[in-house]
Design brief:
By secondary structure, this protein is of the alpha/beta class. The chain contains 11 helices and 12 strands. The strands form 2 sheets. Strands 1, 2, 3, 4, 5, 8, 9, 10, 11 and 12 form a 10-stranded mixed beta sheet that branches.
């Protein structure tokens, strides 16, 4: 039968070599960042119950994981510290001998070529679990800036190569830039969690970091997920304040915003595939309902297709392996 079809999109799908030739989204292991939790004590490697396959490591046990990641081709790690003691003003966040500071020292000693990023926030360190210091029942934005700046500086002094503020206070990028510059760290980049939503996808992380707010929620500082134009406003403000990279978080349900931020800024865009995304994939795979590796790959590619230059994921090591094998990328 003569249909006279001029355009047959299937022509480009008929052969694996050709499919790869015309592939629009390319991924590289250098874009992957692995988030890692560190705890006090010695010889501890504890599985996080809501994040099967993810662990909290004591500083002396970090080495094995860092080397394993490095060998898989993951060259960047973001550290989260979980202190033993918490207080009202999150002193552990900026203590010289704080947990994350000790971890940066150790990481640089045992795996010096791993690029280390510090998550800058107070929620893991405050007794009330909020991301800043309180004035009554409210987080005091301007007072919190000093604490965040101190935290960022202490991480850089301990060896962090980059800092990533995740608190969502107004003006924190500028405050951090100022203190780093004043202290001589003019070349230390800031990756801002610019577009961070008040999201239930962070549930398992809060188990892992013991950082659930003791009262209320984070809606007065993290964004309302109904908003798209506000995402541009937040990203553009952070660019003006001197952010070097902007992040969208979560990633999976927010591809439209990754694209929006990508199209409206001229700096690299990161996305963070958060704990709840990981936990859902793990749980469904464990039940035998989905193929874990296939789904992980499909979701990761979607973030890059949406415009991510950098992808922060608990699956970073597995993704690196899939890229190496040519399964994706
Ligand atoms: C700290 C912080 C959170 C996450 C990253 N940094 C938790 C939160 O904002 O409640 C979430 C990461 C994840 O869920 O994987 N503010």
């Amino acid at each position: 039968m003569e249909l006279g079809l001029m355009n047959r999109p299937r022509r480009l799908r008929g052969n694996a070599v050709l499919r790869k030739m015309v592939r629009e989204t390319r991924m590289d292991k250098s874009s992957l960042v692995y988030p890692m939790f560190v705890i006090e004590g010695t010889n501890r490697k504890e599985e996080i119950p809501s994040m099967i396959g993810q662990y909290r490591y004591s500083v002396d046990r970090m080495e094995e994981k860092l080397i394993e990641l490095f060998q898989a081709g993951v060259r960047s790690v973001m550290l989260f510290g979980i202190p033993n003691q918490k207080d009202e003003v999150g002193s552990g966040a900026y203590a010289q001998e704080g947990i994350v500071q000790k971890a940066f020292h150790k990481a640089k000693e045992v795996c010096p070529d791993m690029y280390m990023i510090g998550d800058v926030c107070m929620c893991e360190y405050t007794s009330h679990g909020h991301c800043g210091v309180l004035q009554g029942q409210e987080v005091d934005n301007d007072k919190t800036l000093e604490f965040l700046a101190k935290t960022a500086l202490s991480q850089v002094q301990a060896g962090a190569d980059m800092v990533a503020p995740s608190d969502m206070m107004d003006g924190r990028v500028a405050a951090i830039r100022r203190i780093l510059d004043k202290s001589g760290y003019i070349n230390t980049p800031i990756m801002s969690y610019a577009v961070k939503f008040a999201s239930s996808f962070y549930g398992p992380f809060r188990d892992a970091a013991d950082s659930t707010p003791a009262f209320g929620d984070r809606k007065s500082y993290q964004m309302d997920y109904h908003n798209r134009r506000e995402a541009c406003k937040e990203a553009m403000l952070d660019v003006e304040e001197g952010a070097d990279i902007v992040m969208v978080k979560p990633a999976m349900a927010y591809g439209d915003l990754i694209r929006e931020v990508k199209d409206n800024t001229n700096i690299p865009v990161a996305s963070y595939s958060v704990s709840g995304e990981y936990a859902m994939i793990k749980a469904a795979a464990k039940a035998g309902w989905i193929d874990e590796t296939d789904i992980m790959c499909e979701i990761a590619v979607s973030a890059f297709r949406a415009g991510s230059d950098i992808y922060i994921s608990y699956f970073a090591e597995e993704l690196a392996t899939c890229i190496e094998q040519g399964r994706i990328g």
